[in-house]
Specification:
Blueprint: H1 2-28, H2 40-56, H3 58-62, H4 65-68, E1 72-74, H5 91-115, H6 118-139, H7 161-178, H8 196-213, H9 219-232, E2 244-247, H10 256-261, E3 267-269, H11 271-279, H12 285-288, H13 309-314, H14 325-328, E4 333-337, H15 339-351, H16 359-373, H17 379-387, H18 398-409, H19 414-424, H20 449-454, H21 456-466
Antiparallel strand pairs: 1-3, 2-4
Helix pairs in contact: 2-5, 2-6, 5-6, 6-7, 6-8, 7-8, 8-9, 8-15, 15-16, 15-18, 16-18, 18-19
């Protein structure tokens, strides 16, 4: 009888040993210095840096939107400047937006709810709304309703652009409710150094931006949104020191533009904007553009967009201007929303009759704020600039006045400049010299190729609703 129990005893000992072994392996593979729960401050810093890098980096800024709006041009490898792309070229904004930024921001929102830290939730909602705005401005219809569980849904449906903008306005209203300057403090904020009052202004400024995005389609909704912002009372970004931006550090955390110019020499400033700055005697020219390496009659020489490779290189690497050192410096900021932009937006809202503010006064203040942003503070210089007939505000055509000056003020902010140029239709740009779009300019990004392969049904439904997945298909907000 005793012998009959031995196998059972041995089996029990084996089970205990196996369990102990598994426990030991788990303990062995657990870093005692790491928290088992993600910390919201680390997630916040990471989400800001990841999004800013994508927004200000090569694929979505330098090699696409900055070329489309003719702030920059290419002197080597000119295919993108001629609008020659594959759908893989537009993967970056989508993949980083969903797989990195939104997932991290969703994580912050969940932690904030679990830990009763509403200020983290409010900040995350503002940033997530910005990310979704970048995505829908670029592609059009995008997955939004699945945002809360995007990491679990491999085939999310695309929401119409109108629905996305409306949902973002709701999210930003919710963010305002969560944000409380007297509430529990946050950490990890590398935009406003944990100043919640500034985040409330950022939220309202982003709401204003989106309200104007929809203004040509849904003017009553836009007007209602602006009235709600005014009633809420936190105000907008109101000085250059409150501009929403990420100020980069030295290498390896330098500005993506600086990082690229350390090793490559592909880009020059566009002739389009150089010519315009010369025509206006604009004091921002030596800031936006570097002097040519070799002496030239004009000192600042832009190149036409969309030249063939040989034609571009024949202009001379040392006889054409790179973007100015302000933008290629390691610590150059990635601007999200500037004070100047907010003033232009308020001027437009007034011009449309959405507010009782003075459109012309706000326009002059916007131009002044942009000049001040780049260190131009001399009063006679500013007054002389504003007094020019080609700069004075034209109440009969606010789109032209605001569109032309806003295009200059948004220099370097490719994605935002691209959205505003499509919406306001100024300046009236000419297509690339050797462009391949039959005399047209791009008006959107095409969807990433991975969406066709992985999420084909949703992709096809969006294309059927929105129009062909090509660079020349206008998005819902782009009316004119």
């Amino acid at each position: 009888m005793k012998l009959n129990h031995i196998p059972l005893i041995l089996s029990g000992l084996s089970l205990i040993a196996l369990t102990s072994c598994k426990k030991s392996l788990v303990e062995l593979n657990t870093n005692p210095n790491n928290s088992p729960t993600a910390q919201p401050d680390y997630l916040l810093t990471g989400a800001i840096k990841t999004t800013a890098d994508s927004y200000w980096g090569t694929d979505n800024n330098m090699n696409s939107s900055l070329l489309f709006v003719q702030h920059w041009a290419k002197i080597q490898y000119t295919d993108p400047d001629r609008y020659i792309y594959t759908n893989n070229d537009f993967q970056s904004l989508w993949s980083s937006g969903y797989a990195k930024s939104i997932i991290n921001l969703n994580g912050i929102i969940k932690l904030a709810d679990a830990q009763a830290t509403p200020n983290y939730k409010g900040v995350a909602l503002v940033l997530r709304s910005w990310v979704f705005t970048l995505l829908t401005d670029a592609y059009g219809d995008i997955p939004y309703k699945s945002a809360a569980h995007i990491e679990e849904d491999l085939t999310p449906a695309y929401d119409p652009q109108k629905d996305v903008y409306y949902a973002l306005l709701d999210d930003l209203k919710a963010a305002q409710t969560s944000l409380d300057p007297s509430g529990k403090a946050i950490l990890g904020d590398v935009i406003y150094n944990n100043n919640i009052a500034s985040w409330k202004k950022f939220a309202n400024s982003l709401r204003l931006r989106i309200a104007l995005r929809i203004a040509d389609r849904e003017p009553e909704k836009a007007k209602q949104t602006i009235a709600e912002i005014q009633a809420e009372g936190s105000g907008y970004i109101s000085t250059n020191t409150e501009t929403a931006q990420l100020v980069y550090l030295a290498s390896p955390n330098q500005n993506p533009i600086s990082n690229l110019f350390d090793t490559r020499d592909d880009y020059r400033i566009s002739k389009t904007i150089v010519d315009q700055l010369f025509a206006l005697n604009d004091p921002r020219l030596p800031i936006f553009s570097a002097k040519t390496k070799d002496a030239t009659p004009q000192t600042y020489v832009g190149i036409p967009n969309g030249l063939l490779v040989g034609d571009a290189s024949n202009l001379g690497f040392t006889k054409t201007s790179k973007p100015g050192t302000y933008f290629t410096a390691p610590t150059a900021p990635a601007v999200i929303i500037s004070y100047a932009e907010v003033l232009f937006d308020r001027a437009e809202a007034a011009a449309r009759g959405f507010t009782n503010e003075d459109a012309a006064d706000l326009y002059n203040k916007a131009v002044t704020a942009s000049l001040n942003q780049y260190g131009i503070t001399d009063a006679p210089t500013i007054s002389s600039y504003l007094a020019q007939a080609t700069v004075k505000y034209d109440a009969t055509n606010f789109r032209k006045s605001i569109g032309n000056q806003k295009w200059i003020a948004l220099f370097g902010q490719g994605l935002e400049a691209f959205a505003e140029w499509r919406r306001l239709d100024y300046p009236q740009l000419q297509p690339a010299v050797a462009g391949v779009l039959s005399g047209k300019l791009p008006v959107r990004f095409i969807y990433p190729g991975t969406e066709q392969a992985i999420n084909g049904a949703s992709y096809r439904e969006a294309v059927a609703r929105q129009g062909a997945d090509v660079l020349t298909t206008k998005l819902w907000f782009d009316v004119n």
